[in-house]
Design goal:
2 domains; mainly alpha; about 400 residues; about 65% helix; globular
Length: about 400
């Protein structure tokens, strides 16, 4: 065997050693369905996910002025985040190395271990964070990482403990599309907040009365919070109803309704323009009324939880509470394509609004039979769904 042949064979071996793990990882990300127990697939997915998120977290430590959200980085503890990052690296590294030793899912775990090595080589949890400018353009990478981890840990557990559809898998069909929606919605948080704040100040600033706002802020915390949620839900109800009843607006809202399997990730599917427009319409009255900062923080926690929880694959015995607040059972009917569910159950927080305005679902059935838009005409894929409203009919 001559030298040129040996070089060629060496190059082919190296290419295959790199290409095979990447190809298998890409193939995994295209699949859906249940993970077969006992084959190391679940631990490999956990290791791969944690390794990827840990690498993103290290990058956020290196470039906090561009990759972290100002409102968040003033709240959380750097030391706690370092500890979480260290735990993620240890878990991902331990799982991937253990699977490699046992010969399970070798290619996937090679990629996971490579991600851990890359994150460690870049400084791991010991990346120094010095002073940096606070008013730079940014991507909400930290918000994406923390929310994805938190939502997965909390809502996946709830879905497994109290499932509405017991046979539904974690990696259901089209989960990849909804994860892209989830990521983009978090990454553009800076642009969204900037746009919303600009529109609020320029469109509604003239309506603000400092005396009236001070009177609102003097209301006790709990009744002020309940009032804040009510005002927001009234604005959301009529905005949401307009999306259904105005054909042009429906083309944007149909993206959200095109999801055919309901779970905690399903609520992330949303057109970016609808996301910003709805926030302006809902936040405008709150901005005008001038609710206190503590109340607004409470409202953000409530809307953040309900936006995910009400789409989740969860069923609980709600009793009379189902007539007062929006639950997953209530909101699932809104996403149903059953005839009696069309253009019903608009509220996001208070279910009694739909009963008050005559838009609550009335059906002898306990649960819907199918979800999605009638006719199933929405294309799959994040980019195609963002372009859908602008296509010719």
């Amino acid at each position: 065997m001559n030298r040129e042949t040996r070089r060629r064979l060496t190059r082919e071996l190296l290419d295959n050693a790199v290409k095979a793990p990447i190809d298998e990882t890409h193939e995994l990300l295209q699949r859906h369905g249940a993970l077969r127990p006992g084959a190391g697939k679940l631990s490999s997915v956990v290791a791969l996910s944690l390794g990827f998120l840990a690498l993103l977290a290290v990058l956020a430590f290196h470039f906090p002025q561009y990759l972290t959200t100002p409102d968040l980085r003033h709240q959380y503890s750097i030391d706690v985040l370092r500890q979480l990052l260290l735990v993620a690296l240890l878990v991902a590294g331990g799982m991937s190395l253990g699977n490699l030793v046992l010969g399970r899912q070798r290619n996937l775990n090679l990629v996971a271990f490579a991600l851990v090595l890359a994150a460690t080589a870049l400084g791991g949890s010991r990346v120094p964070v010095g002073n940096f400018p606070d008013h730079t353009p940014y991507i909400g990478l930290d918000w994406f990482i923390l929310d994805l981890l938190g939502s997965t840990l909390v809502f996946v557990v709830i879905e497994k403990l109290f499932p509405l559809y017991k046979g539904q898998t974690l990696f259901r069909a089209e989960w990849q599309t909804d994860l892209k929606h989830f990521a983009v919605n978090h990454f553009i948080v800076g642009l969204a907040l900037l746009s919303v704040n600009f529109l609020l100040h320029h469109l509604f600033g003239w309506l603000v009365s400092s005396g009236f706002q001070q009177a609102v802020q003097h209301i006790a915390f709990v009744p002020q919070l309940l009032l804040c949620v009510l005002v927001a839900d009234l604005a959301q109800y009529w905005t949401h109803r307009a999306y259904h009843e105005v054909p042009f607006l429906w083309r944007f809202h149909a993206v959200h309704h095109s999801v055919k399997t309901m779970d905690w990730l399903a609520g992330s599917r949303q057109h970016m323009l609808e996301l910003m427009a709805t926030r302006v319409c809902v936040l405008a009255p709150l901005y005008i009324l001038g609710f206190s900062e503590a109340v607004m923080n409470g409202y953000i926690l409530i809307v953040g939880f309900q936006a995910v929880f009400n789409h989740a694959n969860v069923h609980l015995p709600w009793g009379p509470l189902k007539y007062l607040v929006v639950t997953p059972d209530f909101h699932h009917w809104h996403h149903a394509s059953d005839e009696e569910a069309i253009d019903r159950n608009y509220a996001a927080h208070y279910a009694f609004l739909d009963h008050l305005f005559g838009t609550a679902v009335k059906s002898p059935k306990v649960f819907p039979e199918k979800y999605g838009v009638v006719g199933d005409y929405m294309p799959d894929g994040f980019v195609r769904q963002q372009l859908f409203p602008f296509r010719r009919k």
